[in-house]
Amino acid sequence: MIVVKVGGSAGIDYDAVCADLAARWKAGERLILVHGGSGETNRVAEALGHPPRFVTSPSGYTSRFTDRETLEIFEMVYCGKINKGIVERLQRLGVNAVGLSGLDGRIFEGRHKDSVRAVENGKTRVLRGDHTGTVERVNTDLIELLLGAGYLPVLTPPASSYEGVAINVDGDRAAAALAVALKAEALLLLSNVPGLLRTYPDESSLIRQIPANDVETYLEFAQDRMKKKVLGAAEAVAGGVQRVIFGDARAGQPITAALSGAGTVVS
Ligand SMILES: Nc1ncnc2c1ncn2[C@@H]1O[C@H](COP(=O)(O)OP(=O)(O)OP(=O)(O)O)[C@@H](O)[C@H]1O
């Protein structure tokens, strides 16, 4: 089983990802796709007059402050436009894909964090009314049911809280939890960069290999949202996934290239 997570930053070529995925699926490989949608969510939020608000925690992690209105915009884009766009591409390529959010069948479940600590102008404040959380449980029965019946699952945040409330969760860490729960042999985190760069945005500074027992050390090279990817990779390898690859989804055959050793390989 290979879990592929494709991001939602500008420049990602969903046609290339879907074509590669479809070819491998038709050749008999077991795959699941998880996707993001941050770039488009920012654009739609601006257009709807509710611009995105990103907060940085005291430990340096950046996240989207998700009030109820933001959550609804997030769902429109992630579960609507992006998810259905990917499912349509796969259907046109002859793959019977099923698009679901983590809320559906509680595929991704976790604790709702209503408040977040944010550093603003050098001061730490507590912001309430946040709809975020972290995936702690994965409904593998539903995934296996779909795979067993020949459907390719296309999954996206949000997740469900234990109380059944929609929560915004990080897609990379959700994909990591999924890979661990399914005992996947590889997790691919594909985005609009060649991999983890030692000096971002210099693409010639690509880090090619990260030892599985030392992933956290590499957090120092990741800025803002890349930190969650490194954290997700650390969680996946700690949970038994043999290989995590940060790969490029901007062109070519992103999945095949990553599995052939391009990008940053954590193993
Ligand atoms: N050291 C680094 N190496 C590579 N990218 C980095 C680094 N530090 C920060 N980044 C940023 O991280 C971004 C990738 O993370 P991001 O979460 O935005 O992508 P995504 O997975 O495509 O999005 P989504 O949240 O929609 O799933 C890159 O576009 C880059 O701007």
Automatic annotation (TrEMBL):
GO CC annotations, alphabetized: cytoplasm
Gene name per UniProt: lysZ
Role this protein plays: Catalyzes the phosphorylation of LysW-gamma-alpha-aminoadipate.
The protein's Enzyme Commission number: 2.7.2.17
Main location group: cytoplasm
Residues engaged in binding substrate: 64, 168
Compartments reported by the entry: Cytoplasm
UniProt site (Transition state stabilizer): 5, 229
Name the record gives this protein: [LysW]-aminoadipate kinase
Catalytic activity: [amino-group carrier protein]-C-terminal-N-(1,4-dicarboxybutan-1-yl)-L-glutamine + ATP = [amino-group carrier protein]-C-terminal-N-(1-carboxy-5-phosphooxy-5-oxopentan-1-yl)-L-glutamine + ADP
Domain Aspartate/glutamate/uridylate kinase, residue spans: 1-246
Keyword Ligase belongs to the record: no
Family per record: Belongs to the acetylglutamate kinase family. LysZ subfamily.
EC top class, as a word: transferase
Pathway(s): Amino-acid biosynthesis; L-lysine biosynthesis via AAA pathway; L-lysine from L-alpha-aminoadipate (Thermus route): step 2/5
Record keywords, A-Z: Amino-acid biosynthesis, ATP-binding, Cytoplasm, Kinase, Lysine biosynthesis, Nucleotide-binding, Transferase
Source organism of the structure: Deinococcus humi
Gene Ontology molecular-function annotations: acetylglutamate kinase activity; ATP binding
NCBIfam families cross-referenced by the UniProt entry: argB (TIGR00761), PRK14058.1-1 (NF010659), PRK14058.1-3 (NF010661)
Nucleotide-binding keyword on record: yes
